[in-house]
Write a structure and sequence with these properties.
Blueprint lengths: L7 H8 L3 H11 L3 H6 L3 H9 L9 H14 L3 H13 L9 H18 L5 H6 L5 H15 L4 H10 L4 H13 L3 H14 L6 H11 L3 H12 L6 H14 L2 H14 L8 H11 L5 H8 L4 H13 L3 H8 L7 H18 L2 H15 L8 H13 L3 H10 L8 H13 L3 H9 L4 H4 L2 H13 L3 H11 L5 H15 L2 H14 L3 H19 L6 H10 L5 H16 L1
Helix pairs in contact: 4-5, 5-6, 6-7, 9-11, 11-12, 12-13, 13-14, 13-15, 14-15, 15-16, 16-17, 17-18, 18-19, 19-20, 19-21, 20-21, 21-22, 22-23, 23-24, 24-25, 25-26, 26-28, 28-29, 28-30, 29-30, 30-31, 31-32, 31-33, 32-33, 32-34
Length: about 575
């Protein structure tokens, strides 16, 4: 650690400074152990211990406890556990530790194992009877939560076990958090803050709960209370970046994380994995193949975000293989399972998969914890979409529309739902907001927007859509839609054009009948002064391409009418 760039020897000879004062000032430049603790500078604590300047100069074991504590706080759980093992091995030296201390060390090692996801001897936790018994009780609760989903009965038992101490109440809040009961967790945190105003770190927990409830602006407000005092907090800054991602865009969030990395050149290593993970999310999946697979064993969200990346890139099989064996427990897992089953159901026309998707969407959307969240409402909209109750789809999507103004997928679904309840103007607006080129080449998008043009009295734009995609394999489908919808809406000239092309492709009598009816409709519109006479000339030209004898009769009638004009 470089504490000063002054050349003390040079300074002394030039300014005749007393060496004792220089040494005294040099010493003052080094923070005390207590200062490192108060500043939560755990790297500083480790540095002092390494330099034999720990708090207990004559007690190696007590210093090692501080070393383990600093590693634990830095998220370096393996190093902390190795330090506890080292302390246990030292019991044979002159600095003896008794069996009770060994039990306490074993308990602290179990805490490290818990964070590392390693096996813990639950029997030891249950039989532990030392001064840290309350810690053992809390650890047992967490282990039970990992093994079994908590029931109403188990929650009652947990609340009876836990006392009114801050630590126990924080444990209860974390249990609520684990069960996605974020409001209940917030209530506990706020109650503690009212009594202990110095516990400002609880604002980070509250902000995280609000973030998970989709109240990103509220989360940011609460987070600011903490960041004002600790502007370089890694956890808080990362959460701020996540809020920015939700409120604004990935670029804004990325800048926040980049600044965070630059401001922590030495001791941000414990956060390296989740920062790498979040950068992939903020950059819309950039680097997903390189980063996410290696993080799946340490960050559960990595597997889920890789699944999302596959789905966004139309790799449904890869997404399905990734979480096929995952038994859903949390909302996002249910949602991803629902999307995958929905995709399979629609591509394979599988009623079974569609039914599974419906059940999963409804399960999340109707749950008390999710019914008022954005993703909960999206799930209910998806459920009603699959069962074709589009009035309900519009109702749910309209309630969250402001959050997805520029979201292409949202606008696509919203446009389809609006179209299905015959709100074609709003549907057209939604479709035209879509910018994704791949989506705009999708046949469903093309057909939906074409229908909206027709229903909104813009048949020429509908015909332009056909001309744009006439070389595609699905152009015949688009022609059928234009021919029939334009005929229905009285846009007879465009209907005539479409039936003319269909007749050239297939001499089926039904296409001639459609063409004949459309031609008659053109003449009727001109007679009623609704269309210009130029439409009649084009109709005559199109009828001449038909070999049906009735075509000549119609041409004669039209010519006679034009001469009378």
């Amino acid at each position: 650690m470089i504490l000063s760039r002054y050349n003390l020897k040079q300074s002394s000879s030039k300014n005749n400074v007393d060496h004792n004062n220089v040494n005294k000032n040099k010493t003052n430049l080094i923070p005390s152990f207590e200062e490192f603790v108060n500043k939560r500078d755990y790297v500083g604590i480790l540095t002092l211990i390494e330099c034999n300047a720990g708090p207990y100069k004559n007690n190696m074991i007590k210093n090692e406890f501080w070393r383990a504590f600093a590693h634990f706080r830095l998220g370096e759980y393996k190093k902390a556990m190795e330090t506890y093992d080292k302390i246990k091995r030292s019991s044979s030296s002159k600095e003896l530790i008794d069996s009770q201390q060994i039990a306490n060390i074993e308990l602290l090692s179990c805490c490290c194992k818990f964070y590392m996801g390693e096996f813990i001897d639950q029997k030891f936790i249950e039989t532990y009877d030392g001064p840290n018994k309350l810690l053992a009780e809390r650890l047992k609760i967490y282990l039970d939560l990992k093994n079994d989903e908590p029931t109403i009965e188990s929650m009652d038992r947990i609340q009876k076990i836990l006392s009114k101490t801050v630590e126990d109440q924080l444990c209860l809040a974390s249990v609520h958090f684990y069960r996605n009961q974020y409001q209940e967790a917030i209530d506990i945190y706020k109650k503690i803050l009212l009594e202990e105003k110095n516990y400002i770190a609880l604002n980070v927990y509250i902000a995280l709960c609000y973030y998970l409830l989709d109240y990103y602006d509220v989360s940011q407000e609460v987070l600011t209370l903490y960041l004002q005092k600790h502007p370089k907090s890694i956890i808080a800054s990362n959460l701020k970046a996540c809020n920015n991602y939700r409120l604004y865009n990935g670029t804004t969030a990325e800048i926040e994380l980049r600044n965070l990395i630059e401001s922590f050149p030495t001791n941000f290593s414990y956060a390296k994995d989740f920062i790498r993970h979040n950068l992939v999310v903020f950059l819309n999946g950039e680097g997903a193949y390189q980063v996410l697979p290696s993080l799946m064993t340490t960050i559960p969200e990595a597997k889920l975000n890789l699944t999302i990346f596959y789905l966004k890139n139309d790799k449904n099989d890869e997404a399905d293989n990734l979480i096929k064996n995952v038994e859903p427990k949390i909302p996002i897992e249910y949602i991803l399972k629902a999307i995958i089953n929905s995709n399979i159901g629609q591509s394979q026309n599988s009623h079974e998969h569609l039914k599974i998707a419906q059940n999963y969407f409804q399960l999340v959307g109707s749950s008390p914890a999710e019914c008022d969240t954005i993703q909960g409402r999206q799930c209910m909209a998806s459920y009603f979409f699959l069962i074709r109750q589009f009035e309900e789809v519009v109702l749910y999507l309209s309630s969250i529309k402001s959050y997805f103004y520029n979201d292409d997928a949202f606008n696509f679904n919203y446009g389809q739902a609006k179209m299905m309840i015959h709100c074609f103007k709003e549907a057209e607006e939604a479709f035209l907001m879509i910018e994704n080129e791949n989506l705009k080449k999708d046949l469903v998008y093309i057909c939906c927007l074409t229908r909206c043009f027709i229903m909104n009295g813009k048949p020429t734009k509908a015909w332009d859509m056909y001309l744009k995609y006439q070389q595609s394999k699905e152009s015949t489908i688009l022609l059928h839609l234009i021919a029939n919808d334009c005929y229905k809406m009285g846009h007879f000239l465009v209907a005539l054009r479409a039936f003319d092309v269909l007749e050239k492709l297939d001499k089926s009598p039904e296409y001639w009948e459609g063409k004949r009816g459309a031609a008659a409709g053109v003449l009727q519109m001109i007679i009623n002064k609704h269309d210009p006479i130029e439409h009649l000339y084009e109709a005559i030209k199109l009828l001449r391409t038909s070999t049906n004898p009735q075509a000549n009769q119609m041409i004669t009638i039209m010519k006679n009418y034009s001469h009378e004009m």
